[in-house]
Write a structure and sequence with these properties.
Layout lengths: L9 E6 L5 E2 L14 E5 L1 H7 L2 H5 L30 E3 L1 H7 L4 E5 L9 H14 L4 E5 L3 H13 L2 E7 L4 H9 L3 E5 L3 H11 L6 E3 L8 H15 L7 E5 L4 H16 L8 E7 L4 H7 L26 H10 L3 E5 L1 H15 L5 H16 L8 E5 L19
Parallel strand pairs: 5-13, 6-7, 6-9, 7-8, 10-11, 10-13, 11-12
Antiparallel strand pairs: 1-2, 1-3, 4-5
Length: about 400
Amino acid sequence: MPPESPYSALSHLECSKCGACRDAAIVQGRCSCGGPLLTRYDLDLVAELASPAAIAGRPPTLWRYHELLPVGHRSRVVSMGEGMTPLLPLRKLGKALGVPGLVMKDDAMLPTGTFKARGAAVGVSRAAELGVTGIAMPTNGNAGAAWAAYAARAGLRALIVMPTGSPEITRAECVAAGAELRLVGGHIGDAARVVAAELPGRPGFQDASTLGEPYRLDGKKTIGFEIAEQLGWRPPGVIVCPVGGGVAIIGIYLALLQLRELGWIGGDLPRLVAVQASGCAPIARAFAARARQSEPWPDARTVAFGITVPKALGDFLVLDALYATEGTAVAVDDEALLADQREIARHEGCFICPEGAAGVTAVRRLRESGWLMGTEEVVLLNTGTGLKYPGTVPGHGHSVP
């Protein structure tokens, strides 16, 4: 019997700052220089093992791209069926905004209701495969809920630390999944300090904070793979992405680079748009100054709680992606994004999260400014369901006697 083909073409890890190589076969955090580690794949091997035609015949989950994901054995995959979320035409909203080619990648359909399930599925699967017994992470809410759920499915322990202002629903999800939940005053940076203090006393635990381990990023990378496949293995003109820690937009960019190197897509890469809230916009401010990295944002506040990140560890990677694709960064006001949350529901029936609604406002702004000409195919990433933020839309009605 011939030997079984490799499930993953993972080669090694590489520091995004100093370029040092690290062994992917053992548990790794950040590089000794402090830089996030990125996965590197043997793309020649990927080309031997997979093709767009072969992928088309696989089950409709993100694991259809397993050669470009880090889990070494099919049996170690921890899954709830995540991936291949719909790419929805937004014809009425697009017409109203002057962007008739507007479509939405709707990750509200994923387990736990947000795109965080992608990173959790891949990150937890790889952690368990490498012998990790527990994960610890700071979160604004949705990532903690997703990692708690996948940790429970994998039989791992979970310590989740959130700011006290995080959505109550996400806190309930963590408790329901059996995670140890801690609440702290302040923002996600304060939660990160609690995790850092706890980890030394918890042998077997892994720091699963944003870019604190290499594999969450690979889960988010599948957004880019799916968009390309759903468009017939071609990139759109523009991709609009809410940005807090920046993992999604970094992952999309890395995915598109890999697909282009494999020859599965051609032409120019999409212009990438990073969307932030005006109450916490360090990357948008850095982009406007053409800076290489951002400065911490003081007194960060926005109703789009998931993008309340005063200083992202991977800010330089986000900015690199924007500069390389001739993209841009936009900061939008809470009042405007809440109005557009209702606008997309009124036009299209989609109750999306505030972070996704910020993308709608960004499209509106970019069309008004002329950055979008109106002829582009624009993919808007909705990162989660509006049902997680019930207070953003008042449920007023008329009483019936």
